Amino acid sequence: MADQKDRYGDKIHDKEKVIEDQWAREHDAELLAKLREKTGTTFVCPKCGRGLVEKTHHKVKVMACPDNHGAWLGESVLEAILKR
Hints:
- The protein is α+β, with helices and mostly antiparallel strands.
- The protein contains two helices and three strands.
- Helix content is 56%, strand content 14%.
- It has a three-stranded antiparallel β-sheet, with no helix packed on it.
- Strand 1 and strand 2 (60-64) form a beta hairpin.
- The relative contact order is 0.08.
């Protein structure tokens, strides 16, 4: 009988953990949604805060600051440049 009681206690503990994990997942999703709304889908220059624009240099597309503070490359673009 004591063994059954322990299993039920484990089940209750497991259910509480699932509920807590579900709450944390939903809370994280809400926070991510708020961040996406705040920042939008565009990337911004860390120096001036202006939105990056897509530019093409030597057949390579980069995201660049309109005030020429820098350019950012995706991983695939960087690999293509390194292969050249």
